[in-house]
Structures are given as structure tokens and as C-alpha cells.
Amino acid sequence: MATTKTDPKPAGVADSDIKKAGETYEGLSRERLVDAYRIMYTSRRVDDREIMLKRQQKIFFQISGAGHEAVGVAAAFALKPSYDWFYPYYRDRALCLALGATPYEMLLQGVGAAADPSSGGRQMPSHWSYPRLNVVTQSSPTGTQILQAVGCAETGRYFAAHPEAAKKATGDYRQFKNVVFHGDEITYVSLGDGTTSEGEFWEALNTASNRRLPLVFVVEDNGYAISVPVEVQTPGGNISRLVAGFPNFHFEEVDGTEPVETYAAFVRSVAHCRAGEGPAFIHAHVIRPYSHSLSDDERLYRPDAERQRDAQLDPISRLQMFLLREGVLDETGINRLEKQVEDELQAAVDKALEAPPPTPDTVTRYVYSPDLDPTSSAFETQPVLAKAEAAPTDGKKVAPKTMADLINATLRDEMRRDERIVIFGEDVADCSREQYLRQKMVKGKGGVFKLTSGLQCEFGSDRVFNSPLAEANIVGRATGMATRGLKPVVEIQFFDYIWPAMMQLRSELPLIRWRSNNGFSAPAVVRVAIGGYLTGGAIYHSQCGESVFTHIPGLRVVFPSNALDAAGLLRTAIRCDDPVLFLEHKRLYRETFGRAVYPGPDYMVPFGKAKILQTGTDLTVITYGAVVPRALQAAQKLEREQGVKAELVDLRCLNPFDWETIAASVRKTNRAIVAYEDTLSWGYGAEIAARIADQLFEHLDAPVRRVAAMDTFVAYQPILENAILPQTADLYRAMKELAEF
Ligand SMILES: Cc1ncc(C[n+]2csc(CCOP(=O)(O)OP(=O)(O)O)c2C)c(N)n1
Ligand SMILES: [Mg+2]
Question: Count of CB atoms within 10 A of residue 445's CB?
């Protein structure tokens, strides 16, 4: 803890300014308190200057940290900058300044400069990201940071137990991902009182508590979420009372406008976390002296009397009074410090206003990894058959494996090769109660479709484990883990239940790299069992919806139709440096169609390369997933009965997709059908059809047709299911008609 003996004299403060040297306040020296004041005052002044700049239209948005300054400084003083990890929300300006960010850096984000270290002009101000300070890129959706912070905390613990895994390796994403960790590191995450209403907050408490993670939750309770007062969000109006039952936590409720008291609360919390006892929860009551943002006028919903009551608690004036009262600084000292802050800020503003903006040609940079291209030949290898399979001695042919078998084998091979891989999801473990496995009382489950069977038994419960039944929890944690250098390969049990994770999948995982201007990346793999044709799967076990995800820049989307492609593409997904949504069709898991002999532990298929399943000259059918075997049947029948030769293109990968193969085929056949299992309208095929119409118009002898599901849900009764989903007969009819057009 700081003492006056060892603390350097704060810059800009004359010896005569500091009175009564030697005393400390909850371990904070008087110099440290002056530091605290300088940072808090700077934070407020940056807000004020930004507000002015916004009014002058020199910056384009402003979010203030006013009223929250004491919490930020207390947190930074109790934690270790560039050692611990930080997921701060937008009011944490003072925290970031105290950790080492500068007003100039913050103003660069305000003006949207190319040199903005947080985002290169891509994000609003106060969306912090400072890689050198372990401040992880933040976004605007309230609460998405919390589960990522959980994943971050889990990662530090994982690497401490598996230090070898942190080492650099070449030939895959690890080459480009520096891992740093400390055995006793802590993760900080903060949020507002309103944000405690988000489900992800509770999902995060759940896992932090269950796993006793070294994670400090900080709720900065300013009593409002824009105009909605806390009692509307929180039953009883006090979040501390509601969370008090979570085991393993250390709890604090403090006046967060008072830095010394708040600092003491942080010190106690940090001690609990560093000792490995579990997480901490700090509920800090603060004020919001300015409106929510410049777009809000709080006088519309807060009477003057209430605002004046708050003003009495302003942390800046409170600390100033404290310093004067305690004789730490006198008025001259305060004035000198404030003048110095003003001068430095003016220089930072002048410089930031001169900073050049990014050029428009850079906008697509860092949507994907600039280092590793999963469409390249580096990801193209040939199957290698095991000796016994290539030349069986007993004369018997080796039985080909199902897609389920080869996905399981690929996961196993990759986990052997790369200790950074962890697998979690609902029911993916063999058995959470390990003793049952150890005592051989049970065989283990390993996934509702058994795709992860045996992996926990081979690799241990800290590499393969069950998550809570909470999809945002799965994807949010995976995002935090991947940001720190782990390779989570998580499972969403059914595509139908992916939607609770949608905010993480739409606005977080694929954006980490782009929004931080390559400061961070999160190349996680999300495996999802998808699709219908199940005879009884009904509405909620049959959904497709891949186009919702191919619509997201930054996310690779893969959809194999057979065992060999599934193995090769899954390996590419795991080794590559981008986030991947890996769609596995349930109906194809154990289908006879598309079985293959195990292709060896290095077999890879590059992304964005279609496979021509059958060549033809009369028309092109572009498809993927479970429609592939149906289209093949239809095409064979058409050739048999009508002599029409269809060319069949299996896309295999939906983002990126293989436009060249499609174009070459359509140029040859002059007729095209796009066939897919999802509902017809606005589906994946709409994009392909539009591209063909746009770019291959002069090659077409017929309109571009689509065959897809009806625009309804998949019904339970098989007669209805058959009518709703595209069948071989539908494909046959469409192909015949188009050939005759
Ligand atoms: C998921 C989501 N919903 C709504 C918003 C719009 N919004 C931004 S801040 C905010 C209020 C947040 O209140 P609180 O958590 O108390 O934080 P405070 O701003 O008071 O510090 C809302 C509704 C958002 N950014 N994200
Ligand atoms: Mg609030």
C-alpha cells in the first residue's frame, strides 16, 4: 500500500502545497489523494470540453463520466494497471485516465481520428479500448461486456493451470495471438443500475459465483437509466439486496462519491479476489450531474430539488473540500493543479482537432484477420488414410464414418494438438459429476447428439464442461476467452435456441476486431445443430435461418453436407483467426449419404470453395446442407428420365461463398436454380439469385429460380413437414421446368 515515504511528489505540486505529510487515508497517501483529485478533475474537464466541442460540431457525440469519477479512481488505485483486465462501461473515463489513458487519446476518439487508439474513428467516444492497458474494447449494447468479462477471468485461471498452452505456435491463429496472464490477475467489469435488468448480468453472476472467479463487478448506481428511476428497474430499489444470496461473493455497498471510502471497499474486494476466494460485488451509489447524454434533458423527468440534492454530493467538490479541510492542499495548490490540467487539456484539444481522419478506403480493414486467410491454400490439404485403412490386411474394406463420427474425431485431434481449445455448452460434457465417471458408474453423455462424446474423459473437466442453460452465457464467455487467446469451440444445442445469444453473435463476437481497429480479436468457433427433415422435429427443433448470420460482417458461416467436408471445414474453423459459425445439419449427422473414411488429423478444406458434386451442361443447381442429397437424387432422376444434365454446386461455406464457381457454372449452363432449406423469402438464395441476375444477365437463357421452404414454420405432423420443406420432387419439378424454359 502506498506510503508518503515512497510516493514521488505529484507533478505540478510545490512542496509547500502539501501539508502534514505522513498521514494516510485507508492506505492512500496524501500525494495519492492529490493524484486522485487531479485525475477526477481532469476527467470532468474532458467531459466539459467535449460538451463544448459537440456544441461547436467539432465532435459528433458525447457521453460524460460526470459524477462517477471517484469510483473509477478508487478502482484503478486498488487494481494493477496493465496487469489486471478491464471491461469498463462508458461512464468510466476517470478509471481509464487513472489506468494510463490520456485526454488526448480520448479526444482522438471524439473527433474520430485515424490515430484514435480505441477504434481508429469507428466507435463513439467513451467506448474504451486500450490494448496496452488491458482495457478491452467496449460497445454500446448495455451489459454485453459482463459475460465477456467472465470469459476473461476464466482465461487467466486456465492459462495459470496450463502454462504450456500460452506459448506461441506457428501455422494457425496462435502465431498471431500473444497471450499474457498472471496467476493472480483480476478482471474488472462495470455497469449501470439500469443494466442490472439485463438477463446477461444475472447469467454472469451465476457463472462467476459457481466458478469462484476473480472478477470484480461494479454497479455504478446513479439512480437512473436515462429517464427510468432505479425502483422501476430493481425490485425494492436496491440491487445489493437482490444479489446478496449468491455464494462465494464478497459484497460492498458504498457511497461512490467518496473516493477514500470507495477505495477501501475496492481494496477489500481485490484482496478477496486475489486470494482466489471468489468474485466481488461493489455497489457504488453515485450521481449523474449532467443529463444521460447530450441528447437527453433530465429536467423533463427530474425536478430541480432532486437535482440540487445530487449536486451536494458531487465527488469533485467533495474531494476538493476534503483536501482543503485536511490541509492536503490549500487554495493556491488547488488552483495551481487545476490550471495545469486546463493547460494540458487545451494543448490536447488543439492537437486532437488537427488529427487527420481515417480515409474511406480503410473501412473494410479488419473485418477479418489481416494475418491469416482461411480461403488460402494454407488451408487446403489432402486426406491421409491411416495404413490400416489405405491397405487393409484382412481384405475387408474399412467402414466409412458418419458426419457425427468425423466431427467428434476432428475435435479430438485438434484438442490433442492445441491445448488452448476448450469446449463447453449444454450437455457437452460426458458427466459433470466426475466421480461417476471415475468410478465407472456411468458411460457419459457427451452432447445430446453425442458429438462431444468422450472428450471430457480424455481431456479433463477444465477443457470440456457443461455450461448453464443460457445461450448468451455460452457465446459471451467464449468471446471473452477468445479475446484473451483461448480457442473456445462452443456448442449451441439447437439452432432454434440460438436467439438468446443473438446480441453476442450480432454485435459482439464478429465486431471485436473491426471496432477495436485490430486492437483485439476473438476467433471463437460456435458449433450449432441446425435444420429439419426430422419427422416430428416440429417448429422448435427444425429451424434454419443461416441468412440471419451470413448478413453479419466479420462472421464466417460454414454449412457442410457430408462427413469429409465437415471434418475439413471444422479443422479450418478451429485453426483460423476469425470467428466462425459452424452449422451442422442434424439430419446429416448419421445419414448414409456422405459418409467418409477418417481423413487424418490434418485434413483441411479452405473456406469459400464450393464442390461440384456432379457436372452437367443443361442447368446449374446451387445448394448446400441437407438439400444436397435431395438435389442429387432429383438430378439423377432427371438425367435418367429426361436426359437433362444438371450441374450440382455444393457451396459448403456460406460466408465467404464461392462466386467464381457459381459464375463459371452458370456461364456454361445458362440456367440457375438456388435451392435451400430455409424459408423462401429473404433467404440465403435471394442474395445468390440477385448476384446472378446482376452479374451474369447476358449469360442467362431463363429466369433464376429458387426452391426453398414455404414462408411458414416447420410443423410437427410429417405430412405438413413434407409439404413445407423442399423435397426431392419439388427440386425435380423446378429443374425440369427450368430446363424446358
Ligand atoms: C441493450 C441496450 N438497450 C438500450 C440501450 C440504450 N441505452 C443506452 S444507455 C441506457 C441506460 C443505461 O442506464 P444505466 O445502466 O443505469 O447506466 P447509466 O447510463 O445510468 O450510467 C440505455 C437504455 C442500449 N445502449 N443497449
Ligand atoms: Mg444509471
Answer: 17
